[in-house]
Amino acid sequence: MRKTETMPRRSQPIWAGYAVGAAAFLLAAIVRWLISRSFGEIYPFAPIFLAIIFTAWYGGFGPALLVAAIGLAHGYLTSNSANSNNHPVFGLALYVVTSLGIALVGGAMSRARQRIAHQVEELQRKHHELIVADQRKDEFLAVLAHELRNPLAPIASALDILKQPEVDPAVAAKAIEVADRQVRHMTRLVDDLLDVSRIMRGKIELRKERVDLKSVVARAVETVQPLIDRERHALTIELPEDAVWIEADLVRLAQAVANLLSNAAKYTEAGGHIHLSALVENRQLVINVRDSGIGIDPATLPKLFEMFMQAAPGSSRSRGGLGIGLTLVKNLVELHGGEIGAHSDGLGKGSEFMIRMPHAELPAEIPSAAPAPAGKGPRRRILVVDDNVDAAQSLAMLLRLRGHDVQTAFGGPQALEAAKNDVPELVFLDIGMPVMDGYEVARGLRAQFGSEVTIVALTGWGTEQDRQRSRQAGFDHHMTKPVDLAALEEVLATFAAPDEQVNRELQASNP
Predict the structure, then answer these.
(1) DSSP 271
(2) C-alpha to C-alpha distance for 137 and 307, rounded to whole angstroms
(3) Which of 328, 225, 336 is nearest to 276 (CA)?
(4) Cα-to-chain-centroid distance, residue 310
(5) What's the CA gap between 107 and 476, in Å, rounded?
(6) Average confidence (pLDDT) over 1-17
(7) Burial group, residue 21, by CB count within 10 angstroms (0-12, 13-18, 19+)
(8) How far apart are alpha carbons 324 and 313 in whole angstroms?
(9) Strands 273-281 and 284-291
(10) pLDDT band with cut points at 50, 70 and 90 for residue 85
């Protein structure tokens, strides 16, 4: 939809009302002259009133008042002055009052008519926008269904392979790799949807810190590298030799750069070239992602960052994507105080995206403390609670493989009973359960065991409001489904059993 189609038509120019008034007065003067030749000067202002009424209806108060004044002068000058009774004072006063009233009422009617016409145009514009938005929504839902079905097919195939008796270990490993990759792809789709929703509602908060540009680029490239390798693209990276430090949220900025790289990889034919570069210019950090792909239609460029907009709608289904990636990038960059632009010489000539962000310099030597990789750690007593039996059992199996003692419960009352019989050190607790939800279970565990138990929320709800509510209910951590293994390891690594906490407190009090 072109923007010109949605703009209301501009109201008539001011001079049009006066032009119509002049034409109406001229016609009235001719009619008055013809009448006076046949019937004499019965009432010289009668035709003028018709001109005033028409002018007021079309042009409003100002043009009608001008016609009334000209008509008064014309009627007085062209009347028979020999007979003074033709123009008594009362007649003049009546003409002035009547013409003024006509001008006022006609002007009000003209303004009302214009307002109604403008409202009709506005309603037509909004109706057209709703039709376009509905079409884009339908297209988005179709693409979303397509994008979610795509990874489900290889996951189902991988599971069928693993069900086969005496499957070759190499084949099983390959099937697991495929399933893992597709699950990560689905997780990213859902995360992008949630991120856009949070940003649009102003519910996302950046965790800014001073980060090195190379860390941002490394994380972004790591995310997109499998896609780039699969498409056999050549990726070149050109960064400043010296460290470039910026004030940013490392995860979110890397997500923005990764989305640009992913977009370039998807819309570039296999074996293409992608170039990522960065430089400091006028105390601004400029990140540039350029590709040799299908390019962008110049008509699409102004709308490229709109929600659900596809750079190449005709090929969107074959190339994948929900049409929200660039919207997400734009909002993340703007949250950092930066801006993003796009350029393309046309279809088939590649595209270029440029991020500009405030540049922050830090001293050359900055202490960095990287935590040492944690091992499996000591054996823990863990309770996994989820009404989804498969989800609970699969997480329990994963934790048992890590050497932990794990129980499962498939509902709130069962979880409280299991905890009472064998007090766990760590509880992975689903929130959205029937009968008794996770909030009630967490409050029950806190009432029974206090801070003895570490409780981790395990849920599909991941907004900041959801995290705040889980904290208020007594949860120590909040994890979103599907569980990321790295996040799980982090929780296990930072978890300290009650006896370890007591020992640390004793050591701190007795140096």
Answers:
(1) T
(2) 10
(3) 225
(4) 14
(5) 69
(6) 51
(7) buried
(8) 13
(9) antiparallel
(10) very low
